[in-house]
Every structure is written in C-alpha cells, then in structure tokens.
C-alpha cells in the first residue's frame, strides 16, 4: 500500500514537471517564433531549436 502512495506522489510530481515543460514550449512557439521552424535537414533543425531556446532564456533576464 505504501508503494502505491509513493507511486501516486511520483506521478503527480512528474505531471507537474511535464506541464512546466509544455508551458515553456508553448511560450517559445508563441513568443520566439519556434513554430516557424521549417528546416528540413537533420543537422540544421536542432540548431534552430537551440537558438529559439536561447532567445527564450534571454527573455527571462
């Protein structure tokens, strides 16, 4: 029984973290133009996404 309780608590914490990450991605899409990523090459897409995340972090400062 105690395992089920700690499992539920862990599930709740995981869900809270997941919501926070999804919120950040939503903000990046709306404010930093991440929805405009149209790169097709496997090498360039991660760089464009990284730049969007960098801009999002700079907005915090």
Main attributes of the structure:
mainly alpha; 61 residues; 2 helices
A few lines on this structure:
This protein is an all-alpha fold.
Write the layout of secondary structure elements.
Layout (H helix, E strand, L loop, with lengths): L1 H30 L12 H17 L1
Largest sheet: none
* Estimated helix fraction: over 70%
Radius of gyration, taken over Cα atoms and rounded to an integer in Å: 17 Å
N to C succession of SSEs: HH
Shape: elongated
Classify the beta-strand content into a percent band: under 5%
Supply the number of structural domains. 1
Structural class designation: mainly alpha
| Separate helix tally | 2
Give a count of the beta strands, DSSP E runs of length 2 or more. 0
Distance between the termini: 45 Å
* Poorly predicted regions: none
In round numbers, the mean pLDDT is 76
Explained architecture:
The chain has 61 residues and is mainly α. The chain has one domain. It has two helices and no strands. The chain is elongated, with a radius of gyration of 17 Å. The model has no long low-confidence stretch (mean pLDDT 76).
């Amino acid at each position: 029984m105690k395992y089920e309780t700690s499992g539920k608590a862990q599930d709740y914490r995981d869900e809270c973290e997941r919501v926070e990450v999804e919120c950040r991605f939503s903000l990046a899409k709306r404010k930093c133009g991440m929805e405009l990523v149209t790169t097709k090459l496997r090498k360039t897409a991660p760089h464009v996404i990284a730049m969007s995340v960098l801009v999002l972090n700079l907005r915090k400062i």
